[in-house]
Amino acid sequence: MSSATARTTADVVVVGAGLAGLLCALRLQEAGRDVLVLEASDGVGGRVRTDEVDGFLLDRGFQVLLTAYPAVQRWMDVHDLDLRAFAPGVVVHRAGRVVRLADPFRAPFAAARSLLGPTVTLRDALRLLWWRRAILARSGRRVAARPQVTTAERLAEVGFSAGLVDGFFRPFLAGTFFDPELTTSSRVTELVFRCFFRGDVAVPARGMGQLGAQLAARLTPGTVRLSTAVVGLRSRADDEGGIDIELDEGIVAARCVVVAVDAPALQHLTLDARPLATDGIGAQPAPGRGTAAIHFEAPRSPAPGRRDLHLGTPGEGPIATLAVMSDIAPEYAPPGRHLVTVSTVGVPDVDDGTLVATVREQARGWFGDEVDGWRTLAVQRIPYAQPRQDPADLPELARAVARTPGVWVCGDHRDTGSIQGALVSGRRTADAVLASTLPVSVAG
Q: What's the confidence (pLDDT) of residue 239?
């Protein structure tokens, strides 16, 4: 990759080097198209990035990979990612109690102990088994095509008790979709649970940023131009047509353009001085759900060897999720040191010092005074972590990618707000470009 590659024309220019844009570029390049990827930031991956701070690997927000995502199995070299899995289940902290909820098919003894607690009744356990079987019996396409309601409504339809909804589903989906109110589309929730049931929750040993790095490494050298912001698109009026991509300095000419940026960036980009987001591609992208991530160095792991995902209960404090990332993947921290990562629902409207203090206070109730010895490594505020996915936002899961002749859009806001959705969108958009009349260039 290069930030200063001298190049002014291409068959296809992809704006944005997130997962959707990278996969789209890879598909087009494999089909013989001459592709240039323009990325405004200093690295690839979009929202799936990893920073190194004092020898620690800090993902930008708490993120995980579901190994059963079909697009991951199809397009990623999973072996090369060197994945490290979380324990099969979660630990919920609620009203001073700690409840461990385990997958009965992978940790049957731990799951059996869950029946002795206040969260899961025998009736709930039987309903969970029925719901699991019903979801796995359908293909992903059939799950995506089911009539959608809110997740709260679907859970009520299945017959789960209020205790299980409040003691498991609400904390779990607060950490997954930043949605403690359970307004997310039932289609999205059931698709995600289908992958939870079929595979592991994991992270690459060298951080989530390895996903984008792996895709970018498969592109022809020089394809990705970093630190190159696009300020607008303009249709060419000459006989050959095409699109001019306007940069801060200069113009890149292309036969067509794929805009692979997140929804906020899409809403600020224009085509022929008109907003790109609201004209010709269906409904305007939904607003985003945000989060803050707080990364701590700990002298010791507060739960050594457990590999657990800890969930807070909405309303009891700022913590949505807490994970000792160095227990999941030791590579996340220097030898002998430990990394604890916390995420919140939304971006709290307080300063960093106050946010860290309130997180410590809640975590102290979970792990004791040792929390006072944790050193703050970073506080990340991420206003747009994923698109909102309420039923009204999703008239269909696979939304239109064609903008106007010569311009396409892709990103997880066109499919589901997930790594799976980003990769599927990149593939769908590449297929749409290839199905157009765009010829292979002489250089290709």
A: 60
